[in-house]
Amino acid sequence: MAPQEYQWFPDFLQFFSQNTTIHGLNFIGNRRIYKAERIFWLLTVTVAFGIISYLVKSNWEHYNANPTMVTIKKDFRNWENPFPAATACFVDKVDKEKATEYIRKKWRINETDNKFEYYMNYVKAVSNLTYTTFNLLEPYEHDLTLNDVDMVDLVTQVHPKLSGTLVTFHTRVKTDWEIILTELGLCFTVNSGFSALLSPNYTSSKNLILGMKKENLKCHYLNGLCYARYDSEPDKSLQYYIHSHLDVIHTTSEAPFLVGNSEEFEINFKLSETYSSPNIRYLSPQQRRCRFDDEPLTKNVPVYSKSICYMECRYKMAIKMCGCKPYFYKFIGGKVCDIQGLLCLSSLAHIFNQSFEYFDCICPQPCNLMVYLKETPHLTKWEMGFFGERITFRWGLLPPTTKYHRKILFGFQDFTGTLFIP
């Protein structure tokens, strides 16, 4: 404690400098040295503190801006590689018999009624709605009786059944198609981590969490038969999208593979993967410049994926421009568009199909990124026999020999360590 006579601030500083063990400060308050020496030590201590402050500030900025690094991994013989997910969509999304039955129950008319064709065309229009086809509803703009139709219920009631045989390389993991509602309409997906989120029956995030915990297909590097094959009915053409299990298809997804009647389509993919160490989680997403799938951007969606972020951007734009959302955003709250609302979105179709920078949409990179690069496909057209009575799509994974690993370069421990270096 300072003596009672040190009542003024300059006196206290003098007392402190005379009794401190901090090198240099004790000379500043020493009454027995010359004034020139005092000034010298004052300048020396000031410069030293300035340098220390600069170093601390530089290391703090380094920690905030560049705490991670990406390295190349080559120990490929031990890898379990994530197998790509597939999403299949019918070219014709309406089963005529189911649609006829739906019209009979909903509007109590049959095929002989004059308005049957009117309602059948409405059912087909709703089942095939996307951001580029909302204009199909123009003939029904003034029919207010259609505004009470539950469009999600309609598309699920009239959608064709997916019947066929799915075979994968993995016999221990049970894999099957799951129905999902996307920006491209009702489709089926397999090996997807977000199928529960896009389910037409989605109600809460509890089912989504359970769905994300399920085991997805992985293929060991030494497995030479890493593939999946689906044999479907020959009279129902399908479009196939291949993507990461942490992605979903959306309006601007890469063009699908169309497999027609009596065709066998084979294609292999190369994997380019960037994975992150678990210990980078304590860094903020801004520091590591990526987000994990359980770090949503907003409260609207309980997970994060770059493709889901794209969908959320379109959703926000739809709410902003027309005050409602299309029916296929079941997993996000908000008013569902009626026919007039969908026609409002139709007039803005050119905006929804542009790049996301156009309407200020920022979607960070995922911390675990998987990109599947397609090889040259092989298409066989069967004219007769057993193979001519089915449609076959086969996709495989070529095991990678290189991966990218994101890890900590300069963590908080390194930052605090620099503060105590003598």
Key features of this structure:
422 residues; alpha+beta; 2 domains; 15 strands; 21% strand; elongated; disordered N terminus
**Order of H and E elements:** HHHEEEHHHEEEHEEEEEHHHHEEEEH
Q: How much helix, percentage-wise, in residues? A: 25-40%
Biggest β-sheet: count, sense, barrel?
8 strands, mixed
What is the CA-atom radius of gyration, in angstroms?
32 Å
Proportion of β residues? Answer: 15-25%
| Total helical elements | 12
Number of DSSP strands? 15
Q: Please give the domain count.
A: 2
Distance between the termini: 28 Å
Q: Name the overall outline.
A: elongated
At a glance:
One of its GO terms (cellular component) is plasma membrane. Keywords: Ion channel, Ion transport, Membrane, Sodium, Sodium channel, Sodium transport, Transmembrane, Transmembrane helix, Transport. The protein has 422 residues and is α+β, with helices and mostly antiparallel strands.
Task: Explain the overall architecture.
It is a single chain. The protein has 422 residues and is of the alpha+beta class. 30% of the residues lie in helices and 21% in strands. Helix 3 (35-65) packs antiparallel against helix 12 (412-419). The longest helix is centred in the first third of the chain and has 31 residues, at 35-65. Residues 1-9 have low confidence and may be disordered.
